[in-house]
Amino acid sequence: MMSLRYAVPAAVLALSACVSTPSEPMPEELRPEVRALAAPGQDLSQVRLESDGCYWYRYEGPVETTFLPLLTRDDRMICVRTPAI
Questions:
Q1: pLDDT band for position 26 (cuts 50, 70, 90)
Q2: Could you give the 3-state DSSP secondary structure of residue 10?
């Protein structure tokens, strides 16, 4: 009986690890105007608009995958509104 007391919570904890919750916003379709502004060499297939009002693209590097700011040819971030300072 004592082992069952610990087995049930352990099983619940182990199974809860199988549930995934979306923690990041889904990538969206990039508008043609924004696509025209983007510098070459950036993956435009997975771009998202963050809460700061700027576009970020998914970068898959040799060590990790992360989102980086989408930049213009003159290294400026592409934003739909200016970030609050």
A1: low
A2: helix
Q: What is the DSSP string of 11-69?
A: HHHHHHTT-----SPPPBPPPHHHHHHBPTTS-TTSEEE-TTSBEEEEEE-SS-EEEEE
One-letter amino acid for residue 4 of the chain: L
User: Which residue type does 74 have?
Assistant: D
Side chain identity at residue 21, one-letter code? T
Q: Which residue ranges make up each domain of the chain? A: 26-69
pLDDT at position 59 is: 95
* Closest to 54 measured CA to CA, from 22, 37, 40: 37
DSSP 4: H
Q: Is this prediction's pTM over 0.70?
A: no
